[in-house]
Amino acid sequence: MPVARPETSDSRIIAHVDMDCFYVQVEQRKQPHLRGQPTAVVQYNSWKGGGLIAVGYEARKDGVKRSMRGDEAKKVCPKIQLVQVPVARGKADLTIYRNAGSEVVSILARKGRCERASIDEVYLDLTDAAETMLKETPLENLENIDEEVLKSHVLGLSLNENDEKEIVREWLTRRDADHRDKLLACGAIIVAQLRMQVLRETEFTCSAGIAHNKMLAKLASGMNKPAQQTIVTSASVKGLLEPLPIKKMKQLGGKLGSSLQTDLGVNTVGDLLQFSEEKLQDIYGSNTGTWLWNIARGISGDEVEGRLLPKSHGSGKTFPGVQALKSLAAVEKWLKELCEELSERLQIDLETNKRVAHTLTLHANAYKSTDTDSHKKFPSKSCPLRYGAGKILEDSVNLFQAGLREFLGSYMSPVGGGWGITGLSVTASKIVAIPSGTSSITKYFHGQDRFHTSSEPSDEKFAPKDDNLSPSRTESHSASHLTECDGERTPMTHDTFTFDQHETACKDEATESCLTSQHHEPQPRVPNTNDGKRTYEQKRKATKEKGTSSILRFFQTNSCSSSSQETKCLSTGAQEALGMESEILTESQNKVRTNSWRYNVDEIDQSVVEELPPELQEELRTWLRPQKQAKPSTVKRGSSIAHYFSPNKNEHTNLKKS
Ligand code: DCP
């Protein structure tokens, strides 16, 4: 159940930054000839051309959707370039995407506390940076405001299509603005600066939402994509939330949202406003009741956790249809691959970040061939984690067998067939830093007496002495929050197995279902509170003018980048393609605006448990506890506004020419 957390301050400046069509951008950076071309990344399983996991904006313009397979995408967009996700150990290898995400995080973390929320999403707490900026240079004295800031979408602001940037400039520099709006304006300036920095250093574009809390920032980041930012003023919150379907709100995509619909007739967030806090508490308990009352009003006290590293690591694979695993030997074979990969990643985390994981969890999706109607889920099983691929495998096999016994019940033999496994994943969680003062990693492990630092099978002296550490004493829960999980995803079908997905890729099944169905659903309208006079056409046009123009400028002027990768020099053909891109992208904005909102509203349902399959999410939420809040990171003070606005504000166009 959601937990209501009090707002620490109503003047926080929180940004949610979301990379645009992330895997596609990573592939386009690797193969610059793909820039400007309709491109999609397909999963490893090549059945019917492979399931699409990321779709570039040019392809979206032609009607390509993430729910399609490659063959279908080719039908609607014959020119589409399909790039297969890298493969290792017979499954998707997401290392390049994960590393690309880390590059971005390291840039975004420069201005404030930074929480890596998924492979391509970050929350930033920019309160200190915004306060500092405001103290040093009053906004009304601001003269040179970067284009990227002026292109911001300010919710609630009446815009006249002819002088949008002027109106935004006026809003940013209003003398009579209240303190909260002034901080938001500073936040917008900082975020635009960071986004341009990301573009310069990584060649990736991203979109952002800037608001007073995480929930609103997340809602806003997807409203104007790609390469744009949206500001949620306090005055716009009501208009933003009221029409939103209740199920689209974070943590309301499941049973709680359904209960609100069926028991209280609440279909939109606005419908929730009629219930008093006491009434909601009576029905859903005091904490959830307060949480519901708060979110209906845009109040959310969730803190940005200072975390640049993932909370857990996972490795998984799906086995759809005839590929289902039907024997213990087959399961063990795949568990070996998954455990070796997990062990390697744990080892890297240990060596690089001096962190150790404490819990191993096995998830599976299964069916009984004799009992096709059964809705019984394969129970997730956990045990303390022992380092070393051999030990992880041994424990995973035991966890699997324990889960299978429970799944089948006493009347079926685990070895006797009659069952199939359509998905398997192993996750290492409860990752903590080795206490400072521990003189060496080896010493730490000796102290723990149950870890083994080698990726080889562990020595017996590290085996658990305590029965509590044995997987036979398994816990039927999982422990993954932000899981860095390698695997492949299967497009939505009823037997979709989703938890072997990676970080963000690990979109929950409810979200995916929404993504699938939303193509047929009317698009939720996201109003500006004062936009009554503005026609939809005008808004579309306005969006066209924003968006990617600066990205194009960037690529056009940097057709041969200085990056070390030799692939970074754009060929003439690629440059021509970029010329085309201008037209394609701006036109695509019309559709993109529609689609991006729909996509991202669905993603509101991502929460700390988003990487897990829906069937596990309920289970997990029941035992999730509030996270320990991280100390705010120190934001560099003493910098002036001039520091935020580089004297050469167009420097991005001159970068990396060497
Ligand atoms: N991903 C995946 N499977 C999913 C969803 C996403 O493998 N079901 C991967 C591919 C995406 C990346 O995760 O590139 C980030 O997912 P997003 O939902 O943020 O989508 P994109 O970044 O691709 O597009 P957008 O610009 O709409 O955010």
What distinguishing features does this structure have?
single chain, 658 residues, alpha/beta, Dna Ligase, domain 1, five-stranded mixed β-sheet, 39% helix, binds 2'-deoxycytidine-5'-triphosphate
SSE layout and pairing:
Layout lengths: L13 E6 L2 H9 L8 E4 L9 E4 L1 H5 L8 H7 L4 E4 L2 E2 L2 E2 L2 H14 L4 E6 L2 E5 L1 H10 L10 H4 L2 E3 L8 H9 L6 H24 L3 E6 L2 H8 L7 E4 L4 H5 L13 H10 L4 H4 L4 H8 L1 H11 L15 E7 L9 H26 L1 E14 L12 E4 L4 H20 L10 E15 L7 H8 L34 E4 L22 H10 L17 H10 L3 H9 L14 H31 L11 H10 L17 H4 L14
Parallel strand pairs: 2-4, 9-11, 10-11, 12-16
Antiparallel strand pairs: 1-8, 1-10, 2-3, 5-6, 7-8, 12-15, 13-14, 13-15
Helix pairs in contact: 4-8, 5-8, 13-14, 15-16, 19-21, 20-21
This protein binds 2'-deoxycytidine-5'-triphosphate.
Give a description of the structure.
The chain has 23 helices and 16 strands. The protein has 658 residues and is an alpha/beta fold. It has a domain at 309-469 and 567-658: Dna Ligase, domain 1 (2-Layer Sandwich), CATH 3.30.1490. It has a 6-stranded mixed beta sheet. Helix 9 links the parallel strand 10 and strand 11. Helix 5 (127-136) packs across helix 8, helix 15 crosses helix 16 and helix 20 packs antiparallel against helix 21 (572-602). The chain is globular. Mean pLDDT is 73; it is low at 449-482, 488-545, 547-552 and 555-658. 2'-deoxycytidine-5'-triphosphate (DCP) binds at residues 18-23, 53-54, 119-120, 225-226, 489, 501, 504-505, 507, 512, 596, 599, 603. The site of 2'-deoxycytidine-5'-triphosphate (DCP) has 21 residues, from strand 1, helix 1, strand 3 and helix 21.
